[in-house]
Specification:
single chain, mainly alpha, 3 strands, 8% strand
Amino acid sequence: MKFQVIRCGQCGKPRGLIHTCITRADRARNPGKTRIKPKVTLTCEHCGKPRGRGHVCQIRTDFKRRKAAAERQAKKQKEAQRKAAAQQAAARRRAEAAAKRQAAAGQTRRATAARKPAGKPTPKPAHDYHTCTDTECRRYACLAWKEALAEGRTSGLEDGYEHGYETGYEQGLAARPRR
């Protein structure tokens, strides 16, 4: 309960024992007189508003603001958890893919090591072209030697037939029994 007795005529504010009046000099209203006007008002001790017959006390709190802030914080935490879970899942997928690639590379490496090198024919052992008996040998020296040997043999046989025939025919006729 407040009890107000004196109101300032200059500013209109309630006046106590010590009152400093602050007004503008160029104000439109003329200053009034300080009057004694007793006035009794009841104010609510909880909310500080003047009480009347129909006063309903509404205590102003920051519940709405705190609740909204808590919801924002929960939403932010939920989003951070979702992002962290997504990052973990992506890291797990990358690790699985890397493991799969390494396993495939290991299998390929083992298969390659087990095979003979591709594209490189196994080299034939070095040999002398005079003694080469391989019919599939493609070395230039062996081919030339075999061709020359075959040509020499045919020409040698032809010479041998001619020479042998002349010599052998007479001997053969002489050795033949006569009838």
